[in-house]
Structures are given as C-alpha cells and as structure tokens.
Amino acid sequence: MNGNLSAVLLKLNAVDLSYGTVCTASQVPRPFTLHVSSGERLAILGPSGAGKSTLLRLMALDFVPVMGEVIFKGRVRKGWTVAELSHHRAVMPQNCSVAFGLDVHLVIALGRVARAFDPSLSDIVVAAARLARADHLLSRRCDTLSGGEYARVHLARVFAQLWDVTEGLILVDEPLAALDLGLQDSILQALDRFAIDRQHAVVAVLHDVNHALRAFDRLLLVKEGQLFADLASTQQAVPFFESLYGLKLECLRTADNAFVVSPVSKRRQEACTR
Amino acid sequence: MSPHALLQARPGWWLGASLCLALGFAVQLGAVPITVTDWLLIHKVLEWPATSEVSEALSGGAHVLFNLRLPRLLLSVLVGASLGVSGALTQSLFRNPLAEPGLLGVSAGAACAAALTIVLIGELPTIIVAEVRVLLLPLAAFTGALVVCFSLEHMARWIAPGSIAALLLTGIAMNALAGAVIGLCTYLANDEQLRSLSFWTLGSLAGAQWLWVGLFAGLLGTGYCRLRRSMRTLNALALGETAARQIGVDVDTLRKQIIVWVALLAGLAVAFCGMISFVGLIAPHLVRLWVGPDQRQVLPLSMLLGGLLLLVADTLARVVAVPAEVPVGIFTALVGAPFFFVLVRQARVQAG
Amino acid sequence: MDLARLQSAGLLTRRQTLGYLAWCAAVPFAMRSTATNASVVKRVICIGGALTEIVYLLQADADLVGVDTTSLYPAMAKTLPSVGYARQLSAEGILSLAPSHLLATEEAGPPAVLKQIAAAGVRMTVLPAHHQYEGLRQRVLGVGKVLERSEFAQIIVQRLDSQWQQVRQQLAAQALQRVRPVRVMFVLTHSPVQVLVAGASTAAQAMLTYAGATNAVRGFKGYKPLTPEAMIAAQPDCLLVTEQGLQAAGGLEALYKLPGLAQTPAGRSQAVITMDALRLLGFGPRMPEAVLALNQAFQGL
Q: A23: how many CB neighbours lie within 10 A of its CB?
C-alpha cells in the first residue's frame, strides 16, 4: 500500500473550495495547497454536503477554480484537450444514469471512445469487466441493473479507460455506497490491484472511515467547504475524525492487530460521564 | 438460424429491401395508370440536355411517371430519411426518447420563419430578384429551426436533467410561440400570401421536382458522411454531459454539430414540404426496439425506416381520395399521435 | 315587426332564375346554327364555381370532365368527378382525367402544382374577376375563347351588359331618392368566440357597393375577426350571410346570439339576408341579378 512518491502528479495551488459550492459563501476563503504523487492513495472524508465532491471534481480538472490553480502532470486545465486528459485520468461518478438503456458492453467500451478504434477493444472490455466483477453483466442492458451492478459497470468503464496507461489518476466518488459487504471488499481489492499494477494514483470520496483507514495512505478531511486536515491514515487521525463528525469515537483492536474505529453509543457516553 | 435471429442479423439489408419493394409498388400506384411502354421511354429521358422535342415526346403516362411521380417518390424517401435521422439526433442530444423536431417546436420554428419571410417580403419592393426569393425561404426556414434548436438546448441545461415532462413542456411552449407568430402572419397576410401560408401547416409533397431530389440527396449524403465519424461519440452523450467530457468527448463541439444538422435537415424539410410531424419520433423508436440503442446502428437505420414510413404515408395520401389528394401531414399525425401516447405511457410506467 | 324578417331572397331568385333560364333556352336555339364546330375533342377541367357556370351557359358542358368542390351550380355539375379543393390540387389527379384545357379562377393552387400541370401540356387559363363586373365580362369572353365559342360568348356578354345597364340605372335612380344607403355587415363565419367579417378589397364588399349599400365596418382589408364593441360601434342595419356559412354555424339562432348584435339596428329588428355563396360571391353569370336581388332585399328592410 505504499505508493511511489517520486513524481508529483497533481498540484492544487492555493485553491479554495467554498467558491462555487452552495455552503458558506460568507466565510473568509482559506486557500490550501496540496500535492498528489503518482501511485498515492487518498481518501476524502467528511460529513454530507461538506464539499467532498467539489474537491474531487476540482482534482479531476472538471472546472477551473476561481482562486488558485490546478496543475496536472505539469499543465493547467487550459493546456489539456478533453481527449488527451481522458487518456490520463478517469472519473467514476456517484450516480450516473445511462439514457436509452445501452448495453453494458457498450458502456464499458465507451471508456475508450476518445481513442482510435483498435481491434483489441473487446478483449479490454471483457478483462476490465472481469476485474470489476461485472463480467456476468456484459450482455445486459443498463436500465435493468441494480444500484450495485451499476457501480461495478462504471468501475469497469474506468478500468477500461486507463487500461494501457501508467501513472494516471483515478477518481472515484462513493464507489461502495450501493454494494454489500462482500462486494465492497472485493471491489476495493480490485481497485487496489489495478492501481498498483499500473502505478495509478487513486483519490476516493468515502463515507466509511474504516475503509479509508484500511485501504488508503492519506486522508483529506473536508468540513463546511474547507479542507480541514490532510494527514496520514493512522490511529493519530482519530481525534480529527471526532471533531470532523462531532462524535466520540473509540478504537477497537482486531485479532490481526489492525484497528477499527467505531462511534461510542450515546448511552455509553452518558454512562461514562455520570 | 431462427427467423428472429435472421431478422436481427442484417437489419440494414432488410430495410433496404423493404424500401426497394415499397418503391416498386408505389410507383405503380396513383391516379394516372402507368404501362410498360411508359417505362421504356426512359431512354428518351436520359438524353441530356433535355431538348424541347424530348419533352414533347413524353406525354401522358410517361410524363407523369418521369416528371411527377418518380421525383415525388424519391423526395418522400429522402425527406423521410432526413426527418428520421434528425429525430434520432434530437433524441440523442436531449437524452430523451420522446424528443423529436416536430414535438419540440423545431419544425414550427422553421415554418414560423418562413411565414414571416412570406409576409415581410410582400411588404418590400420587388427589387429582390426572383431567384433570390426562391432561395430565401429555405434559408429562412433553416434560420428559424436553428434559433429554436439553440434556445431549446440552452433551456435544457437548467431543466431537471432527464425530465421528459419538462423538455416536452418546453417544446409545447415553443410550438405555441411559433404558432402564435404564424397566426399573426395569417392575420396580416393578403389573399395571395395566405395561400402560401396555409401550405406550411399541413405538409405536402406535391410540387416535387428533380432539383429538390438532387438537393436533398446531396444534403443527406454530406450529413451522413460527417455524422458517421461522430456516431461513437454520440453514444457517449447518453452518459450525461459531465461523464461524456470525462471520457474525452468534446461535448460542446458535438452538441453544436448536432444542432446544425438537425436544423438543416428538419428546417429544409419544412421549407420544401411543410410541417410533417412524428416521422422523426416513430422511426428511431422502432429501430431502437429492433436493434437496440447503439447510435452506430440507430442513425443509418432511422434514415431507411424514416424514408419507408414517409413513402407509405405519401402513397396513401396520393391514392386514398383520387383524383383529389390528402395532405400527407394528416396521415403521419393520425398514426403518430396514438403512437406517441403509447410511448408516453410506457415512459411513465418505467419511471414510476 | 318582431318576426324574423328573413329576406332569404328565395322568392325573388326563383322569379329571376326562371326568366334567366328562359332567356338561356331561347338564345341558343337561335344561335345554334352559328356556333362554331369544335374540331378538336376538348376535355376541360374547371376550377371555380363561376367558371363552371359560364361553361354551362355556353352550352359547352359536354366538354367538361372534372370540376372542383366549389362548382355547385347548376346541380348537374355536382355529378362530374371532383378534383378536390381549389387551393390544394393534385397534379396526378388532374392529369388522370386527361384534360386538354384547365380553366381556373385566381384561387387555384398550389402554384407548384399548376406549373406541373402546365408542363404536362395542359393549356391553362386563369381568369380572375378582380371583384368587378368587367371581370365577369372578361371571364365569359375568356372561357368562350378557350372553348371556341367566342361568338356565342359575345352574345351572352351583350345580354349581360344590357342586364347590368338596367340594374345600374335602377340603382342610380334610387341613389337620388334615398337619404342614406343601408349599412350592411357581411359575416363570413361565426362561432361563439369569433366573428369574421368582410372589410375592403373583398368580393362581399364589392357586391354590397354594387347593390347600393355601404359596408358597416371599415378600416381594414380582407376578412378579419370583429370584437363585440366594434360590432356595436359599426351599427349595421342588417347582416348579410351566405346560406352555407349560416348552416355551418348552426342556423339563425346561433347568429342572433352573437355578442353585441342585440345593441345594433340589425339585431333589434333581426334583419338578416342570406344568399347562396356562389351566387353572391362568385362573380359568375348570375352576378347582375344577384346584385338586383340584394338591392331589393335591402329596400325591403
């Protein structure tokens, strides 16, 4: 899980999140600077509406920030054409409905639409689907899929997009939301394997703190439209979680010496204070 | 291979064959009976340039065949193809299977611009040469269609995305606005202008000429070649604007390209033939039911099926009330409107 | 006085028509020997009721192979094949009747179809009336020329001229006596929501003026909708409607209910004159006696 820290992939220089978001336009802007190296794993955490998706979109170069600049592989947004950019970074959206009920195979193949047609496209699609555990869905139509199946198809699309590229950037927005426990684990592993094999950096918006702690190296905590903290994903982060979510948390050790964070129930809290 | 699989395997060939068959039938149907000897006079037609003796040699059935019926049949196929493909493009642009240039007011906008031109040109002194006037109407219709398309596209940005109801309501508003302007023009028009104006609302393929056939063939050919390269990226639009951009599609350029072609195809169809609705709705929908929603197949097959549909409708229009003629727009509306209701119900069932 | 003083000009027309038909019957007897023999077989399609009447008057109805939907007089014209509505002709439909000539009023269309028919070798003659008596004369002479009955047509024109002369003299005499001309409003169609009346540059106004009345509404051209206030401001003495228009809109009861009508002299005395549409507005051969009939109806108010 250690990333290759040699090359700086993405730089956010003095950007501010609250511009362009709905919340707290009256707040004094507090710009921040942040670097992402190639092969790194970042998780973005925070309460609902805090601006996590905005930060993800900023990092995806979806829009040009009002304050500061975003530099990806040495170029700002204007220096990239849309097609070129898609060869180096891929985004998995939170909810993306596909009109007209296209075939799953076609949707995954769309990941590579910005490249010249090549005969191995079908093989890449099938391999990407297998990796994302969506290979049994290949002949289905998108409008017959459940939420979890949808998420896997889009993940397969992301895989297909960056299949033959190294040192790219993958951004995922709540990929595990609609998945059951078993699937969550295998998806995280698939994403991890894919990224390690090709030295892609991964930035993910997550809602489950434990997933973040387990699978990601670095945590970005977002609260009320500001970057609250940028720290390594270790036990030292727990107090930050507490002030982020406004909850009392406790760390529980597991049998193999890993730890799990769990909120303290209100009843026990009251019992402790009494 | 089972019959179903056989049908799925080569849809283009099936449609092409049906089209040729329909053309064969349609050319024999009509008020004036055509005999084999009339067909054999084709060698006279092919003498180019047409001398006066040649045109005199053609009379009766042969004249009707080569100067009236054939251009009209071919024009109905070409205009139907234009409407079919512009319907498919509109649907992919708005990510909505119920979108269609007629329903969304694009045809009405073209007719409205043409009506304004007719009435205003009457006011201007006749310094405008006759040839220019002939060009002016198609140009006006194209401009009107373009304006409506751009307005729709802007409005569709802040309507709830994927909302069928909101898009259709906007279309209703567009249709109402264009209709009101056409009504105003009708009010202001003198008798002669009125005669031209009444032509726009019902749609008719009478008056088809070889010149128009050539124009539409050229237009469709050019359009198809240009759009062939974009068919893969058209599929990407189904994912939504943001996702499409993220996978590397230049959405803005693509949208503009689609709008221009829809305006050209639908606008010129209105300019020459009046308002013919529902072909652009039915053809792509049937094609999607048959071969699925991949634009690489939907676009060319919509052309073929649209041509077939309008050919059949126009043949009915010519034949049903001989020797009079029913405007073809009536037939397309009679079939298309109930079909539309069925589609809306299906969409509601799926959504709810 | 409250009774519906329906001057349906019916009684008058019958008398007029009988005289007219008698005249029609008498003249050709004398003229048959001088009528030219048509050497070429003519197949004529006639677009426009007025022109069809003229064809029958010239006794050339044997050449007629097709008419349009407005050719309703004489009654036997309705038995001929119909080529449809004058403004929406079908090239193939017309050509299927293998015509050699096409006679049309200015209403025939669409222009592209007319071009196609002409290109197919059919000799086309368009005869507008321009809402004038002179137009009627031109029409009779024009039809006579096409059907190769010019001398016969001349005679008919002379008869029409003398008839017209009589009518004009009568009207001129009236104009000297009467204080003010009757104010008439011609209603084309009406529904509970809209009343379409004739303004300037219409056949209806031309007929009214010929018949010695004035149009109660003025200030616009063509057929335009009228608001109830404008109806009251116009203060028409009587309404003029076509029989067909009245029937289509639900009869006299519907007409009397028009908003604003009750506050006008026409509404108070329920003065409505109806006449057959083709006879009133067609500018066909019945025009002089139609003008006379109108005038007598106005006098009788």
A: 15
Consecutive H or E run containing B280: helix B279-291
Per-residue pLDDT of chain A (274 residues; tens, 9 = 90+): 444 445 788 888 888 876 554 444 556 677 888 899 988 999 999 888 888 888 899 899 988 888 888 999 989 888 999 999 999 999 998 877 888 889 999 999 999 998 888 889 999 999 999 999 898 999 898 888 888 888 899 999 999 999 999 999 999 998 888 788 888 888 888 899 999 999 999 999 998 888 888 889 999 998 888 888 888 888 888 888 888 888 888 888 888 777 888 888 777 767 766 6
Give the whole-number percent of chain B exceeding pLDDT 70.
84
Q: Nearest residue of B to residue A89 by CA position?
A: B246
Residue C139 and residue C46 in one domain: yes
Please compute Rg for chain A using Cα positions: 19
Domain identity same for C197 and C286: yes
Structure tokens at C160: 């029409």
Residue ending a domain, choose from C108, C123, C158 = C158
All chains having 3 or more CB pairs closer than 8 angstroms to chain B:
A, C
Residues of B in contact with A87 (CB under 8 A): 248
Domain housing C56? 41-158
DSSP C78: G
- CB nearest B293 (choices: A83, A84, A100): A100
List C195's β-bridge partners, or say none.
C190
- Percentages (nearest 5) of helix, strand, coil residues in chain C: 50, 15, 35
C-beta atoms surrounding B106 within 10 Å: 33
In this structure, are C153 and C234 located in the same domain?
no
Does one domain contain both C104 and C202? no
Inspect the interface and report whether the beta carbons of B250 and A82 lie closer than 8 Å.
Answer: yes
Q: Is residue C166 part of a domain?
A: no
SS3 A271: helix
Structure tokens at B162: 């994927």
Confirm whether C234 is domain-assigned: yes
Residue C293 lies in a domain: yes
Average pLDDT over residues B121-137: 66
Chain B hits for A102, Cβ within 8 Å: 235, 238, 292-294
User: Residue C104 belongs to a domain with what CATH number?
Assistant: 3.40.50.1980
Task: Produce one character per residue of B195-221: b if its CB has 16 or more CB atoms within 10 Å, e if not.
Answer: bbbbbbbbbbbbbbbeebbebbeebbe
Residue A101 is given by DSSP the state: G
What is the total count of domains within chain C? Answer: 2
Q: Quick: pLDDT tens for B26-59.
A: 988 887 777 777 777 777 666 655 544 444 455 6
C97 contacts B323? CB cut-off 8 A = yes
The answer to whether A53 faces chain B, any CB pair under 8 Å, is no
Q: Pick the more confident residue, A243 or C14.
A: A243
Q: What angle do CA C239, C241, C247 make, to 5 degrees?
A: 130
Task: Provide the phi-psi class of A33: left if phi over 0, else alpha when psi is between -120 and 50, else beta.
Answer: beta
- d(CA B25, CA B31) in angstroms, rounded, equals 14
| Domains contained in chain B, CATH given | 3-351 (1.10.3470.10)
Whether residue C224 sits in one domain with residue C292: yes
Which residues, at least 6 apart from C11, have a Cβ–Cβ distance to it below 8 Å?
none
Is the pLDDT confidence value at B125 over 70?
Answer: no
Regarding the domain with residue range A1-88+169-239, which homologous superfamily does it belong to in the CATH classification? P-loop containing nucleotide triphosphate hydrolases (3.40.50.300)
Q: Indicate if C151 and C91 belong to the same structural domain.
A: yes
Per-residue pLDDT at C56 exceeds 90: yes
Task: Say what the ipTM of the complex is.
Answer: 0.85
The structural domains of chain A, with segments of one domain joined by +, span 1-88+169-239, 95-164
C183 and C154 within one domain: no
Name the more confident of A163 and B130: A163
Please tell me whether residue C192 adopts helix, strand or coil conformation: coil
